[in-house]
Design brief:
Layout lengths: L1 E7 L5 E7 H15 L15 H6 L1 H4 L3 E14 L2 E8 L2 E8 H14 L5 E10 L5 E12 L15 H6 L1 H7 L1 H23 L3 E2 L5 E2 L11 E4 L4 E5 L4 H9 L4 E9 L11 E10 L3 H20 L3 E4 L2 E4 L5 E4 H9 L9 H10 L10 H13 L7 E4 L11 E2 L2 E5 L1 E6 L2 E8 L4 H16 L10 H9 L4 E7 H9 L17
Parallel strand pairs: 5-7, 8-12, 16-17
Antiparallel strand pairs: 1-2, 3-4, 3-6, 4-5, 6-7, 9-11, 10-11, 12-13, 13-22, 14-15, 17-20, 18-19, 20-21, 21-22
Helix pairs in contact: 6-7, 7-9, 7-15, 8-14, 10-12, 11-12, 13-14
Length: 500
């Protein structure tokens, strides 16, 4: 059964909308409240306690007056008395409404409330015969009339895509979802506190860049009308933070949104949160120690342990973590020894022998990286640092002095996912220009993820950047790990979705 109701929008435009039966009833109650002089969308309401306070401090609060507010999540009318549950950020608490305590007007208001209405309650704390801690209501106020029914109690909001599209409903009816985002906030707070205590300074750098750099990714492009120039939403934080190192800010970090015009999956969202950290006079070995100690510290502070379970797999975050070079990892899991491979052609044959397809002109370094990604990453379940990446895939990392085909770079893997990326940062402006030129050549061949030339960054390096260690950590993937979430969409409040 459907009906129609006349509504006025925020621009005072009057229109009719179709409503299902439940919404029709709620709109009728809304009209009745207004007719009786009750504001169905109330004003400021001062609380003295939340649900969790009362439950945890019952011994001190028994028979004391309290004032609470929240969403009505259940209701049972029993003539002259009734029960309900009010939910706030901390949880739910039962309320008991009796005609003799609230009077006929407020009792009638309670009987006409709908599940989902937001109410304020004042009353006294007691325990029922069944042992449930309860607020005996003395007064009740409607603070916001819910015009749209919540999902049915026992089934909740189960459609995964609908949960992401209607996160506001997801948070109301699925307490575990709310807890994930509370944990996310704690994780970031502890990371900040940890770095601050180490003498790092939190900074903010531009979100719109004239040149997209700091990572291999396709950027989103926008246009600045006044300057009549295209700008790019940042794909990394790196190059501006390094400029600050040049300027003498020796230990800096930033937590910020970055944007990459890439596919959507359980591991990827086009908009995500990245932490980048830079420390002068350090190298990638220092960044390894920082990574493992900080993540272990966060786990201990937030979860109370460094031994966690992710998707039924036990993970031990206790330092020190396993360290392997990329060549060692490839040899362990594929049997191919790149230490004995001397030419690009040999490398391509080795890849072909294990079913890894590479371009006809692929270099030895790029083949090594391709084999690692296809055949090795899936085995890196326990925390592992993979070190010494080929120069072809590391345009911003310092070369290894004993092997200039490789760089002082590592990636940290946990549960077969990269969770961090770090370098001994390249501070030689001549070498950096040469690598940028090679990246430009790749772009001209059609690689839209290759770096652009950044003359201002080169100018900064020419001023002089001290030896520096740099680290990037994907906050979303770390939160996934520490909250046992299988998809990145479960840890981003409003993930990017295909329009309906």
């Amino acid at each position: 059964m459907k009906g129609r109701v006349v509504v006025t929008d925020i621009n005072d435009n009057v229109r009719e909308i179709d409503l299902n039966e439940q919404m029709m009833v709620r709109h009728e109650k809304l009209s009745e409240l207004k007719k009786n002089g009750t504001n169905p969308f109330g004003t400021r309401f001062e609380r003295t306690h939340n649900a969790n306070d009362i439950i945890n401090s019952f011994a001190d609060l028994e028979n004391q007056d309290v004032v609470i507010a929240g969403r009505l999540m259940s209701k049972r009318d029993m003539g002259k008395a009734g029960f309900g549950h009010v939910q706030d950020l901390t949880g739910q608490i039962q309320v008991y409404v009796r005609l003799n305590d609230v009077g006929p007007e407020k009792h009638e208001l309670f009987t006409k409330l709908d599940i989902g209405d937001i109410i304020g309650v004042s009353g006294y704390v007691f325990r029922t015969r069944k042992g449930e801690i309860t607020v005996g209501v003395k007064d009740i106020t409607i603070l916001s009339k819910s015009l749209r029914p919540l999902p049915e109690k026992w089934h909740g909001l189960k459609d995964v895509e609908l949960r992401y599209r209607q996160r506001y409903v997801d948070l109301v009816v699925n307490p575990d979802v709310k807890n994930v985002f509370i944990q996310r906030s704690k994780i970031i707070k502890v990371m900040r506190t940890y770095l601050d205590a180490q003498g790092f300074l939190e900074v903010e750098t531009p979100t719109m860049h004239a040149i997209a750099g700091g990572a291999s990714a396709r950027p989103f492009i926008t246009h600045h009308n006044a300057l009549d120039i295209d700008l790019y939403l940042r794909i990394a934080l790196e190059l501006h933070l390094k400029r600050l190192i040049v300027g003498g800010m020796e230990k800096v970090y930033e937590i910020g949104r970055v944007f990459r015009n890439e596919g959507i999956s359980v591991r990827h969202n086009p908009e995500f949160t990245l932490m980048e950290i830079y420390q002068a006079y350090a190298d990638y070995n220092d960044m390894m120690k920082l990574t493992e100690s900080m993540i272990a510290h966060v786990a201990q502070e937030v979860l109370g342990t460094t031994e966690i379970t992710y998707q039924d797999t036990k993970i031990d975050l206790t330092p020190p973590w396993t360290r392997m070079t990329m060549k060692e990892a490839v040899k362990r899991y594929t049997g191919i020894d790149f230490a004995s491979i001397t030419t690009d052609e040999e490398a391509r044959r080795a890849a072909d022998g294990i079913g890894v397809k590479v371009p006809k002109d692929a270099t030895k370094g790029s083949v090594l990286n391709e084999i690692f990604e296809e055949k090795v990453e899936e085995n890196l379940v326990q925390p592992t640092f993979i070190m010494d990446y080929p120069i072809e895939v590391s345009p911003l990392a310092k070369r290894k002095e004993d092997d200039p085909e490789l760089t002082c770079r590592f990636e940290a893997f946990i549960t077969a996912r990269e969770i961090g990326n770090a370098f001994s940062e390249l501070n030689d402006p001549l070498d950096q220009r040469e690598r940028f030129n090679k990246q430009v050549e790749q772009r001209e061949k059609g690689d839209e993820e290759a770096h652009m030339m950044d003359e201002d960054f080169l100018r900064a390096l020419e001023v002089g950047m001290p030896p520096t260690g740099g680290l990037g950590i994907g906050i979303d993937r770390l939160v996934m790990l520490l909250t046992d979430s299988s998809s990145i969409r479960d840890v981003i409040l409003f993930p990017t979705l295909r329009p309906r």
